[in-house]
Write a structure and sequence with these properties.
By secondary structure, the protein is an alpha+beta fold. It is 18% helix and 29% strand. It has 9 helices and 22 strands. The chain has a 9-stranded mixed beta sheet. The protein has a 6-stranded antiparallel barrel with strand order 17-20-19-18-21-22. A hairpin with an 8-residue loop joins strand 14 (223-228) and strand 15 (237-243). Helix 2 packs across helix 8. It is globular. The termini are far apart. 46% of the residues are buried.
């Protein structure tokens, strides 16, 4: 008998990808982390300072690790209706929709934003870690439709400017944008809109009138971009999609213009927070995570995973079961009929007192006075809220009851934090909501 071949095959580890802005981040002194195969800025100086800058002034983020998949052609809308759980064919030109892609069994493969960017043209934006499989799934699911699926992630960069001063900062950068009616807020005096050509608004007009979850083609610092009023921070803000060859110049112009603006005044009586802030602060992924959690926004790999369906994440409203057909529909219809039953989950928002936070993985307990506390589920994301000053968390729990799956606001539960009980109260989301 021949001896078994025990030779191991060595695979050279792949270095993380770098965005087109990597050199800019290095020059700014960023600390980097490997995030989904990308070498991304985690922070530049202080997570807390960057978080507060976005809440009080504005922050700029490099999000070029995100995926971008273009779907074009006469059958593009029907193809996306088939591939995704939302009804993309009803999204007006210039608007966007939050949706998901699920497996045949209804489990979540990723959450996405789908933008209707042109006649018979859509842009689907998946998370960085799911980019390749989402692009492959879309190509497979759209194959029988009259459309073309093209992944453009590696030649596209994405810069986000988020915070109360985002619009002011970009007024000196965005020159014009397409005046697509569905994408624009109405104005009392149409004659007051400054036009920059047929069906085109000048920069100040497009920034002021662009609706939330809307996107139009625009020019900024001389570059062609897609300008979207979307974000992941709970603040007003914009996301600018551009060619990777334009990213460094666009970043430079944005930050350069922001540097000409007066700083944001300090908050009187706010202690250490009273210091004035620059108009714009470079921000890393750490502050982006704390900002999105305060806004109650789910993160794939935490609140959303392949182990659950949208209904288990309390996002059943995103599932459009009124569509006659889409991948995963049968499984999701069956799951909807089981809402509140054993083995299902609900996503619950919790708030505590003091300074001790329940982190991801902490067990949530219910003490009903009947012996040992019952384990209800686990925290998916948790931190000491920089804005609110107390602990907040999201947790996947067993339903409250079969008839009323959602846990009543005001219910007191406990988180097991390293063997100690931290009392937490069920609250409504978002934890933080910006002033309009």
């Amino acid at each position: 008998m021949a001896p078994a071949d025990t030779t191991a095959t060595y695979t050279e580890p792949q270095a993380p990808r770098r965005t087109a802005l990597h050199g800019v981040h290095e020059a700014l002194g960023a600390s980097f982390t490997d995030f989904s195969g990308w070498d991304m800025p985690l922070r530049y100086a202080s997570d807390l300072a960057e978080h507060r800058a976005v809440r009080r002034s504005a922050g700029i983020f490099d999000l070029s690790h995100m995926g971008e998949v273009k779907v074009t052609g006469p059958g593009a809308a029907a193809a996306l209706d088939h591939a995704l759980i939302g009804t993309i064919s009803t999204v007006a030109l210039g608007r966007a929709r939050y949706t998901m892609i699920v497996a045949e069994d209804g489990s979540i493969l990723d959450d996405l934003i789908a933008y209707h960017v042109g006649d018979e043209e859509y842009l689907v934006v998946p998370n960085a870690g799911n980019r390749e499989r989402v692009a492959a799934a879309l190509a497979e699911r759209c194959a029988d439709f009259d459309c073309v699926v093209e992944e453009i992630s590696l030649r596209t960069s994405l810069i986000a400017v988020q915070g109360p001063r985002a619009e002011e900062i970009l007024r000196g950068v965005v020159e014009s944008g397409a005046a697509i009616p569905a994408a624009l807020r109405p104005v009392e005096d149409e004659s007051a809109d400054e036009g920059c050509g047929p069906d085109v608004l000048c920069g100040a007009g497009i920034l002021a009138r662009l609706r939330y979850y809307a996107a139009v083609r625009a020019t900024a610092a001389g570059h062609a971009i897609l300008l979207a009023r979307t974000g992941y921070t709970g603040e007003d803000g914009f996301e600018l999609f551009c060619g990777s060859e334009d990213a460094e110049d666009l970043w430079r112009v944005i930050t350069g213009h922001a540097g000409t603006l007066l700083p944001t005044p300090g908050e009187e009586g706010a202690g250490p927070d009273a210091a004035e802030l620059p108009a714009l602060t470079p921000c890393g992924l750490a502050s982006r995570d704390s900002l999105r959690l305060e806004a109650g926004m789910p993160l794939y790999g935490h609140e959303l995973t392949e182990d659950i369906t949208p209904f288990d994440a309390s996002l059943g409203a995103v599932v459009k079961l009124d569509k006659p057909e889409f991948v995963g529909r049968e499984a999701l219809a069956a799951r909807a009929a089981r809402e509140g039953q054993e083995g299902t989950h609900v996503l619950v928002a919790l708030a505590g007192d003091g300074r001790r936070a329940a982190r991801a993985g902490s067990t949530i307990l219910l003490d009903d006075g009947d012996g040992e506390p019952h384990e209800l589920g686990t925290v998916t994301s948790g931190l000491l809220s920089p804005t609110l000053g107390h602990p907040v968390a999201l947790a996947l729990l067993a339903p409250f009851s079969a008839d009323e799956p959602a846990w009543p606001v005001g219910t007191v539960l406990a988180a097991d934090v390293r063997g100690k009980r931290l009392l937490m109260t069920v609250v409504a989301t978002p934890f933080y909501k910006r002033a309009r």
